[in-house]
Amino acid sequence: MSLNDILDSLFPAGHTVAVANQVITGEATTAQGTVAVLGTTDAAAIDHAMALALSGFTLDTIEQHPGRPLVYLVDTSGQALSRSQELLCLNGSLAHLAQCVDLARRQGHASLSLVTANAVSGGFLSFGLMADRAYALADAQVRVMDLRAMARVTKIAHERLIELAAGSPIFAPGAESYVRMGAIEAIWPEPSAGLLEEALAAGQVAPVGDLRQSCGAERGGRQLAAGITKTVQNAACGA
Amino acid sequence: MIASLAARHSWFEATARARLAGLLDPGSFSEILPPAESTPSPHLALLDLPGAFDDGVVVCYGQLEKKPIFAIAQEGQFMGGAVGEIHGAKIVGMLRRAIEEKPAAVLFLIDSGGVRLHEANAGLIAISEIMRAVLDARAAGVPVLALVGGSCGAFGGMGIVAKLCSAIIISEEGRLALSGPEVIETVAGVEEFDSKDRALVWRVTGGKHRYLMGDCAMLVEDDIAAFRRGAAKFLAGWSEPAPSLAHLRAGQQALENRLAAYASYRDGLQVWAALGVARPESVPLLDRDSLVALKEGLPT
Questions:
Q1: What is the C-alpha separation between A50 and A22, in angstroms, rounded?
Q2: Which of B160, B204, B210 has the CB atom closest to A94's CB atom?
C-alpha cells in the first residue's frame, strides 16, 4: 500500500504532508482536531539526517503547537549500517530523537505510532516504541531480526527456531508477538480513520507510566518481566 | 614492576561483581535479587543453553564516598551482556525504585551488545522500557551515570541507553556505537568496515574518539579505581537538569552542526584534524592524561 493511500485512509478530512529523504512531516485534520504527522517510509534505514529531521519536527510541534497530538508512522528497516554514520555516534542521534518524543509526552502531547510496513530494532526503538501507544497494520513486519539471520548468529538450526517460534512470542517475529508481549496495543486490519479516531480519543487520557510489562503479563506473552521488576522495586534491602 | 601498574585493576578484564567491589565504598555492596533468590532464563533453557542465576546483571544498593547510590552492572562474560526478559526487568526495577527512593545517583555499568537474540522481542521491549525508565529517573532528579569500559562495550539498544544517561564515563578500551563493526562488514562489505582492523574500529567507536567528539563527558584509565574517582568527581559537580525544550533545542543544533561539518568523514583521523588536533595520527598513542590535556586545549 502506498503512503498516499495510507494517509488518505487515515485522514479523509485532509492532510498536508511532505516526504523528503524518506522522512514524513506535516499535519492532518481529525475529529480530535489537528494532529502532527511524522515518521518514515519505504523501509527507511534511519541515519543521522532522518533522526534529526524527526526530532526537529517534534521539537517544532512542542514549541509551536502546545498539546497537539503526534502521530508517528513507522516504516523502518532499522538503523543505517555505515562507518561514517557510526563515526558520528548514530546511537547518540537516535537517543536524541527518543528524548524529544519523551519530552513531548512530559509536556502533555499525546502520541501514538502506527507501524505501516516494517519496524526493526534501532529504528523502532528511537521513536515508534517511545510513543504512548503503538499500533500496527495487519501485514506489518515487526522484528529484531529474521529467523534465518538469527539462526546464523545464534548458531541454532533454522528449523529449530521456526519450531520454537510457533509457540513463543518471546522471539517469534511479527506484530502479533508484540501485541502479546504488551508493546503493541492492537493490530488494525487496514489503515482506518475510525480506528485512528478511537486511538486518538483513548490517547487523551495519558497513560500512567509505562504499562507495557503488566499488559504483556495480562496477555500471557511476557510472563516474567512484570513480576521481577516489582520484586526488585519492593525487595527489602539489608544495607 | 612499577608500583602504579601493580596497583592497577583492569576494568576491562574484571567481572561485573569485581567492578562493583572496587567501585563502591568497601562493605557497602548489598545485592537485590541475588543469585540464590532468582532463577535462570527459561527461554535459554528451552534452547538447551546454560543460564545464569543473575541472568547476567547485578543490581544493588551501595555507597560512593558515603553517599547512597544504586548500581546496575551488566556481565559481559555471560551472553555478551545482552538484554533478555529477566535481565531487562531487573534493570527496569532498579531504575523505577530510584524514582521512589531518590539515591544520589544510579551508576549504570554497561557492558552489552544490546538485545539477546534468543529472547529477541523480550529484549527489544525491555530496552525500550529501560530507555523510558532512565529518562523517568532523570526527570525525578536522579542522575544516571553510564560507565563504559568492558569487553562488550555499549552497542545496539544499549548504545542508545548509554546516550540517554546524564553522562558517560569511558575508558580508552571502552567502545560505544550502534551497530557492531562485524554486522556492518557482513551487510555492507569489508570495504565499508573491516572489523578485523582493530585500530580502525577504535578510531571509529573507541573511548578516545567519543571523548574527543564530546559524546562522553570523561575519559579514564582502564582501572577500577579510576572509574570510582571519575564517578565521584562527576557527581560532585552535577545537578540533574529538568527535561526542557531549550536543552533539547541546543542538543539538536549541536548535532545538526556536527553532521553538516563531518558527514563525509569515514575515519576518526579526519574528524580529529577538523577538531583542531595538530597531529591526529599521534592520538592513538597518547596516554590518558595527555589526551585529556589535548582535548582541553582544543578550540571550542
A1: 8
A2: B160
| CB within 8 Å: B94 and A103 | no
- Give the pLDDT confidence of B146-181 residue by residue, as tens digits: 999 999 999 999 999 999 999 999 999 999 999 999
Q: Is there a domain that residue A151 lies in?
A: no
The number of helices, as runs of H, and strands, as runs of E, in chain A is 11, 9
Chain B residue with CA closest to A64: the answer is B245
Query: Does some domain include residue A236?
Result: no
ipTM of the complex: 0.97
How many CB atoms within 10 Å of residue B28?
17
Q: Grid coordinates in use for A200?
A: 486518538
Q: Exposure of B167 by Cβ count < 10 A (0-12 exposed, 13-18 middle, 19+ buried)?
A: middle
Whether the full predicted model's pTM is greater than 0.90, yes or no, is yes
CB pairs under 8 A between A and B: 257
B265/A170 Cβ within 8 A:
no
Give the residue from chain B lying closest to A121, CA to CA. Answer: B124
| Boundaries of domain holding A201 | 3-138+189-207
Residue B118, chain A, CB below 8 Å: the answer is yes
| CATH number of the domain where residue A85 is located | 3.90.226.10
**Residue A53, CA distances (Å) to A48, A78, A203 in order:** 9, 16, 24
